[in-house]
Design a protein that fits this description.
The protein has 470 residues and is α/β, with parallel strands linked by helices. It has helices at residues 13-24, 36-45, 57-62, 78-87, 105-117, 130-136, 146-159, 176-204, 210-220, 228-236, 248-251, 261-272, 277-290, 292-301, 313-346, 352-358, 369-379, 390-413, 418-430, 437-448, and strands at residues 6-9, 29-32, 51-53, 69-72, 96-99, 121-128, 139-143. A seven-stranded mixed β-sheet has the order 3-2-1-4-5-6-7, with helices on both faces. Helix 8 crosses helix 12 and helix 12 (261-272) crosses helix 13. The structure holds nicotinamide 8-bromo-adenine dinucleotide phosphate (NBP). Nicotinamide 8-bromo-adenine dinucleotide phosphate binds at residues 10-15, 33-35, 38, 73-76, 79, 82-83, 101-102, 127, 130-131.
């Protein structure tokens, strides 16, 4: 009997689409789902295709060519641990498990180790692109051993999106793939929040209506801001609400959900001591959006203290465009700095330029700007911060005044721009040769004898700040 080239466990939206993608690319795919009726439904829709279905994990494993390559595409969390434990006794040495779900990177670190103890390779693979990407080409971020990667590479390169090359590359050992996917999502949060803030300004101050916003975003999508998120935003503004006849965006409640990858990004930044204020602002913005009732009540009581300001809508369009691009660059600089720090912490040897390159297709943050990032790291792989790359510095220097004007304008009229402001503050702090935290150190030494360093000689110093203190 013909054996399958690859196996797929989990036939919900992601697993089913990845299986179809693998089959379309010439691979015979074994499929299994915990509830067998899902497998039967799937097989009913795939008549004549190269799928081998099994109702039990034993039959499923037996139907795959050795050494086996098995995707796990089930709900992230303890279900993945359970299935690994069930599989380990029935797998053979050298088999590879590929977890393509949204795993927490520390779980992937642990699972790689667990696999090694049983002679099984485990790859923690971040996959971005949602159901469309799973079917037609995703951005795929594999972490685990490089030997295991080489053996799944022909599969992953076929099912990945293509942007001057397959949108997949070996990311690094253990949890590196899922960590990079997490940071990708954090950057995605920031991109979305920056776009939302730009929309707020254009709508509230510029009085732009959805059709004008759609045309504007379409124009923006032909220049430096070209990206999937700008493209879909232009589409969103044209969607009519069948119930009211107005624009659908105006009927949607302003409460944004989150599934946790933004939170994981911020948590890891805190653990690693890396500032990612724009991404943090985006996560906070979703949290504040969620307390709608409280905000509505507060709106009754809290004055804005705003300062009237008028601006030509066309001028605001242009300023917002440049501010958005600057803030986006500065936000990506934070994400890349977090990756660099994680790489050093866990000896992952992350190749930041290659990571930017595989985000150019398939994933939610795909954008023209990623090519700038790829080039920046190709020119200087040990770049300390993306902001220091000569081409990026040049881009920022011509547009930074717009970011300042937009943040100043929004502040005067009382429109919240937490992500724009966070980007600008990060930039100003990063370029500051002197920060006022000498005073912070003095305070710490005053109340806690934490000591301080001096600017004029090495060593650690403590002062008795007032008689009897310290
Ligand atoms: P879901 O995350 O909705 O999970 C449903 C699948 O998990 C079903 O096949 C279900 O089997 C299976 N499952 C569960 Br629930 N508990 C199980 C257990 N204890 N043992 C075995 N199977 C179990 O599926 P999805 O939306 O296709 O996503 C799959 C993974 O990909 C997730 O980690 C998700 O976060 C990630 N992801 C999703 C997207 C997206 O756009 N949806 C994008 C990127 C990544 P059943 O049929 O028997 O209930």
């Amino acid at each position: 009997m013909t054996k399958a080239d690859v196996g797929m466990i989990g036939l919900a939206v992601m697993g089913a689409n990845l299986a179809r993608n693998l089959e379309r690319n010439g691979f015979t795919c074994a499929v299994y789902n915990r509830s067998n009726e899902v497998t039967e439904r799937f097989m009913g829709e795939q008549l004549g295709k190269r799928f081998i279905a099994s109702a039990t994990l034993q039959d499923f494993v037996a139907s795959i060519e050795r050494p086996r390559r098995i995707f796990i595409m089930i709900k992230a969390g303890s279900a993945v641990d359970d299935i690994i434990e069930t599989l380990l006794p029935i797998l053979s040495p050298g088999d590879i498990l590929i977890d393509g779900g949204n795993a927490y990177f520390r779980d992937s670190m642990r699972r790689v180790e667990r696999g090694q103890r049983s002679g099984i390779e485990f790859l923690g693979v971040g996959i971005s692109g949602g159901e469309e990407g799973a079917l037609n080409g995703a951005s795929i971020m594999p972490g685990g051993s490089s030997e295991a990667w080489e053996r799944v590479r022909p599969l992953l390169e076929k099912i990945a999106a293509y942007a001057e090359g397959p949108c997949t590359t070996y990311i690094g050992p253990d949890g590196a793939g899922h960590f990079v996917k997490t940071v990708h999502n954090g950057i995605e949060y920031a991109d979305m929040q920056l776009i939302a803030e730009a929309y707020d300004l254009l709508r509230t101050v510029g009085k732009r209506r959805p059709p004008e916003l759609s045309s504007l975003f379409r124009r923006w999508n032909e220049g430096v801001l070209q990206s999937f998120l700008i493209e879909i935003t232009a589409d969103i503004f044209t969607q009519v609400d069948e119930e009211t006849g107005g624009y659908l965006v105006d009927s949607i409640l302003d409460k944004a959900g989150q599934k946790g990858t933004g939170k994981w990004t911020v948590e890891s930044s805190l653990d690693l001591g890396v500032a990612i204020p724009t991404i943090s602002a985006a996560v906070d913005a979703r949290a504040l959006s969620a307390i709608k009732d409280e905000r509505v009540e507060a709106a009754e009581h809290l004055r804005s203290g705003d300062i009237a300001q008028s601006i030509e809508p066309e001028k605001l369009d242009a300023l917002t465009h440049d501010a958005l691009y600057c803030a986006k660059i500065i936000s990506y600089a934070q994400g890349m700095a977090l990756l660099a720090r994680a790489s050093a912490e866990w000896n992952w040897s992350l190749r930041l330029g290659d990571i930017a390159a595989i985000w150019k297709g398939g994933c939610i943050i795909r954008a023209r700007f990623l090519e700038e990032i790829r080039r920046a790291y190709a020119d200087n792989p040990v770049l300390k911060n993306l902001l220091l790359a000569p081409a990026i510095r040049q881009e920022l220097s011509t547009r930074l005044a717009s970011l300042r004007e937009v943040v100043a304008l929004a502040t005067r009229v009382g429109i919240p721009v937490p992500a724009f402001s966070a980007s600008l503050s990060y930039y100003d702090q990063y370029r500051a040769a002197a920060l006022p935290l000498n005073l912070t150190q003095a305070q710490r030494d005053y109340f806690g004898a934490h000591t301080y360093e001096r600017i004029d000689r090495p060593g650690s110093f403590h002062t008795s700040w007032i008689a009897g203190n310290g």
